[in-house]
Amino acid sequence: MKLTVVGLGPGAGEDLTGRARRAIEEADLVVGYTAYIDLIREEFPGKEMASTGMKREVDRCRMAVEAAAAGKNVAVVCSGDAGVYGMAGLIYEVAQDYPPMDIEVVPGITAACGGGAVLGAPLTHDFAVISLSDLLTPWEKIERRLRLAAEADFVLCLYNPRSRSRSDYLQRACDILLQIKSPDTPCGFVRNIGREGERAVILTLGALRDSTEVDMFTTVFIGNSETKVLRGKLVTPRGYLQREG
Amino acid sequence: MKLTVVGLGPGAGEDLTGRARRAIEEADLVVGYTAYIDLIREEFPGKEMASTGMKREVDRCRMAVEAAAAGKNVAVVCSGDAGVYGMAGLIYEVAQDYPPMDIEVVPGITAACGGGAVLGAPLTHDFAVISLSDLLTPWEKIERRLRLAAEADFVLCLYNPRSRSRSDYLQRACDILLQIKSPDTPCGFVRNIGREGERAVILTLGALRDSTEVDMFTTVFIGNSETKVLRGKLVTPRGYLQREG
Q: What is the arithmetic mean of pLDDT over B129-149?
């Protein structure tokens, strides 16, 4: 009777940590969103796996908690990190309805770190992570966070920047940022981080606003006032060289 | 002639990804800060390793870039992620003085994700990561970021919260946050994440202000207005259950 919430990293496979791999190997049952189960099915042949579709998060967590309460060793898998917009929080909430059980969270590489590594080193200074999805958060709150984060000169990392039903959200977000930041601010995005068809683009904030390439499988990075492009890589200096003069 | 900047995760060992492990195994030379080299020395016996002390970041990167320029396959190791306050940015900057070379960044579990997993699931909603070290950033800029991040109701993750020479910085940071946030805001900190002597504490923002246990090996988490403590774990709801009513 154990429940482990496991972050797979952006593409599973080589991005899995040793702890994540062991947690899946030791589980009697692995539960996850269909696309993430598909990422790991070949790597763990013969393992019992149960998947549910998008927007079935509560059902999925309840299924996992119930199996653990019934005595199974269950692993719930998430893309990226288990905590950052992952299932760890919901698992703890759902588990409140059941007797206390052993719950462990195994962290994974979140898209901010995975995508940052593909682009170069955009997150070497203070940064903020914001999801543009308003399924669970009022859009006004998202706008307010964008504005304040730009005023604070954070590097910004945007999750869920666009979907079919929210086709202009990235544009609306960029318009808010452009009230405060220069249109020349170096930015980048990575689609399908660590997966087949991975694609990284570096561009200005002005060009990002009008880009049509960003979709729901993309993570977006917006530089702070010191971010620059060095030989095709997006780099935010921490200030070591500048200190030495 | 290849240079790889590798994030080891909080404690190396089981927190290493497959990619990070392979990069170290394939390297002719591994370069890093003494404490991080010590973390991996036993795991990679016979591997040539070179370490330099604290505040020798530029020397360390230059040593690595020169070895790579001379034809070696070099891995630069960082605790946590290679990008988040790590060496990836400085490597790209230093490499500007040399002929173009193949540089790859291998991400690792950053302390925000690693420490979050120990505490529960504090980062399940938008968050900001701020370093309280003013060695490279003016304190006024740090204060401003703290204030705006609190106004934006981000969950906050503080790196480098205190050192010998900055013994009251966490207190000063909390005083700024307390102008905006309730002293009852659930918070937590983790010392020595993933290493010997790991210790996690959950407490209120008011109590965090006066805690003397936080040191330079500690990562601090400050909840947003919805963060709560569930059976001893720090959890920020994403809103799935709340949507279902």
A: 96
